[in-house]
Amino acid sequence: MTFMRAVRHGCAVGIGVLGCLGGSAWAQPGHPALEMLAHLASGQWLVHARDGGMADTRMCLADGRPLIQLRHTGLQCRQFVVQDEPNAVTVSYTCGTAGSGMTRMRMENDSLVQIETQGIAHGLPFSFTAEARRVGVCRR
Protein backbone atom coordinates (compact mmCIF):
# COMPACT_ATOMS: atom_id res chain seq x y z
CA MET A 1 0.00 0.00 0.00
CA THR A 2 1.48 3.40 -0.95
CA PHE A 3 1.97 6.08 1.66
CA MET A 4 -0.87 8.21 0.27
CA ARG A 5 -3.28 5.25 0.25
CA ALA A 6 -2.28 4.31 3.79
CA VAL A 7 -3.00 7.85 5.02
CA ARG A 8 -6.30 7.95 3.13
CA HIS A 9 -7.26 4.48 4.42
CA GLY A 10 -6.43 5.43 8.01
CA CYS A 11 -8.62 8.51 7.75
CA ALA A 12 -11.42 6.63 6.03
CA VAL A 13 -11.78 3.96 8.73
CA GLY A 14 -12.87 6.44 11.33
CA ILE A 15 -9.74 8.01 12.74
CA GLY A 16 -10.80 11.33 11.25
CA VAL A 17 -8.68 14.17 9.97
CA LEU A 18 -7.46 15.36 13.37
CA GLY A 19 -6.55 11.85 14.46
CA CYS A 20 -4.99 11.07 11.11
CA LEU A 21 -2.75 14.14 11.12
CA GLY A 22 -1.96 14.06 14.82
CA GLY A 23 -1.56 17.05 17.10
CA SER A 24 2.18 17.44 16.58
CA ALA A 25 1.74 17.51 12.80
CA TRP A 26 -0.19 20.78 12.81
CA ALA A 27 1.76 23.92 12.05
CA GLN A 28 0.83 27.52 11.65
CA PRO A 29 -1.59 27.68 8.72
CA GLY A 30 0.06 29.10 5.63
CA HIS A 31 3.58 29.11 7.13
CA PRO A 32 4.64 25.59 8.02
CA ALA A 33 8.36 24.97 8.63
CA LEU A 34 9.11 22.56 5.74
CA GLU A 35 12.85 23.10 5.92
CA MET A 36 13.48 20.58 3.11
CA LEU A 37 11.83 22.91 0.59
CA ALA A 38 14.16 25.77 1.52
CA HIS A 39 17.14 23.56 0.57
CA LEU A 40 16.01 23.11 -3.02
CA ALA A 41 18.01 25.08 -5.59
CA SER A 42 16.24 28.15 -6.92
CA GLY A 43 15.73 28.50 -10.66
CA GLN A 44 13.73 27.04 -13.53
CA TRP A 45 12.11 23.69 -12.69
CA LEU A 46 10.38 21.20 -14.96
CA VAL A 47 7.55 19.17 -13.43
CA HIS A 48 6.88 15.97 -15.38
CA ALA A 49 3.92 13.78 -14.41
CA ARG A 50 4.80 10.11 -14.80
CA ASP A 51 1.22 8.94 -15.29
CA GLY A 52 -0.29 11.70 -17.40
CA GLY A 53 -1.83 13.46 -14.40
CA MET A 54 -0.88 16.85 -15.84
CA ALA A 55 1.02 18.39 -18.74
CA ASP A 56 4.73 19.10 -18.26
CA THR A 57 5.03 22.43 -16.51
CA ARG A 58 7.96 24.83 -16.15
CA MET A 59 8.08 26.88 -12.97
CA CYS A 60 10.46 29.56 -11.75
CA LEU A 61 11.01 28.73 -8.07
CA ALA A 62 12.72 30.60 -5.25
CA ASP A 63 12.00 27.55 -3.04
CA GLY A 64 9.94 24.38 -3.33
CA ARG A 65 6.69 25.63 -1.74
CA PRO A 66 4.74 25.99 -5.04
CA LEU A 67 5.28 22.27 -5.67
CA ILE A 68 2.90 21.50 -2.80
CA GLN A 69 -0.18 22.74 -4.70
CA LEU A 70 0.36 21.71 -8.31
CA ARG A 71 -3.40 21.49 -8.97
CA HIS A 72 -4.14 24.63 -6.96
CA THR A 73 -1.33 26.87 -8.22
CA GLY A 74 -1.47 30.46 -7.06
CA LEU A 75 -4.33 29.95 -4.60
CA GLN A 76 -4.06 30.96 -0.96
CA CYS A 77 -4.78 27.63 0.71
CA ARG A 78 -4.60 26.59 4.34
CA GLN A 79 -1.75 24.10 4.76
CA PHE A 80 -1.12 21.58 7.52
CA VAL A 81 2.15 19.71 7.89
CA VAL A 82 1.72 15.94 8.20
CA GLN A 83 5.43 15.06 7.89
CA ASP A 84 8.48 17.34 8.00
CA GLU A 85 11.71 15.37 7.67
CA PRO A 86 15.12 16.43 6.27
CA ASN A 87 14.45 14.67 2.93
CA ALA A 88 10.65 14.33 2.81
CA VAL A 89 7.58 16.42 3.52
CA THR A 90 3.86 15.69 3.43
CA VAL A 91 1.35 18.53 3.47
CA SER A 92 -2.43 18.43 3.54
CA TYR A 93 -4.13 21.60 2.30
CA THR A 94 -7.58 23.01 1.73
CA CYS A 95 -8.53 25.80 -0.66
CA GLY A 96 -12.18 26.36 0.25
CA THR A 97 -14.55 25.76 -2.65
CA ALA A 98 -11.60 25.29 -5.07
CA GLY A 99 -10.82 21.94 -3.44
CA SER A 100 -8.13 20.33 -1.34
CA GLY A 101 -5.21 17.97 -1.57
CA MET A 102 -2.37 16.10 0.05
CA THR A 103 1.14 16.14 -1.37
CA ARG A 104 4.18 14.07 -0.41
CA MET A 105 7.59 15.13 -1.70
CA ARG A 106 10.87 13.28 -1.38
CA MET A 107 14.11 15.12 -2.13
CA GLU A 108 16.76 13.10 -3.95
CA ASN A 109 19.09 16.10 -4.13
CA ASP A 110 18.70 19.89 -4.24
CA SER A 111 17.70 19.72 -7.92
CA LEU A 112 15.47 16.63 -8.03
CA VAL A 113 12.22 15.90 -6.15
CA GLN A 114 9.71 13.04 -6.39
CA ILE A 115 6.07 14.07 -5.86
CA GLU A 116 2.87 12.16 -5.06
CA THR A 117 -0.30 14.24 -4.89
CA GLN A 118 -4.03 13.64 -4.74
CA GLY A 119 -7.18 15.55 -3.90
CA ILE A 120 -10.11 17.41 -5.39
CA ALA A 121 -9.81 20.32 -7.84
CA HIS A 122 -12.86 22.07 -9.30
CA GLY A 123 -15.10 19.28 -8.01
CA LEU A 124 -13.11 16.47 -9.65
CA PRO A 125 -10.65 14.04 -8.05
CA PHE A 126 -6.99 13.96 -9.07
CA SER A 127 -4.11 11.66 -8.22
CA PHE A 128 -0.71 11.52 -9.88
CA THR A 129 3.01 11.11 -9.37
CA ALA A 130 5.55 13.48 -10.81
CA GLU A 131 9.21 14.34 -10.89
CA ALA A 132 10.40 17.93 -10.50
CA ARG A 133 13.88 18.70 -11.77
CA ARG A 134 15.85 21.97 -11.84
CA VAL A 135 16.71 22.66 -15.47
CA GLY A 136 18.43 26.05 -15.32
CA VAL A 137 18.09 29.68 -14.35
CA CYS A 138 14.87 31.64 -14.58
CA ARG A 139 14.48 33.84 -17.65
CA ARG A 140 12.47 36.96 -17.12
Structure, explained:
The structure is a single chain. Strands 2-1-7-6-5-4-3 form a seven-stranded antiparallel sheet. The radius of gyration is 15 Å and the shape is globular. Helix content is 16%, strand content 43%. The protein has one domain. β3 and β4 form a beta hairpin. It has 140 residues and is of the alpha+beta class. The protein starts with a helix and ends with a strand.
Secondary structure tally, helices: 2
Question: In percent, how helical is the residue content?
Answer: 10-25%
- The count of domains is 1
SSE string, helices as H and strands as E: HHEEEEEEE
Stretches with pLDDT under 50, minimum 5 residues: 1-31
Q: Give the structural class.
A: alpha+beta
- Total beta-strand segments: 7
Shape: globular
Averaging pLDDT over every residue, what do you get?
81
Q: What is the rounded distance between the termini?
A: 43 Å
Largest sheet: 7 strands, antiparallel
Q: Provide the gyration radius in Å.
A: 15 Å
In order across it, which strands form the biggest sheet?
A: 2-1-7-6-5-4-3
Give the strand content.
35-45%
Question: What's the topology here?
Answer:
Layout: H1 3-21, H2 35-38, E1 43-49, E2 57-61, E3 78-84, E4 88-94, E5 99-109, E6 112-121, E7 124-136
Antiparallel strand pairs: 1-2, 1-7, 3-4, 4-5, 5-6, 6-7
List keywords for this structure.
alpha+beta; 140 residues; globular; 2 helices; DUF3617 family protein
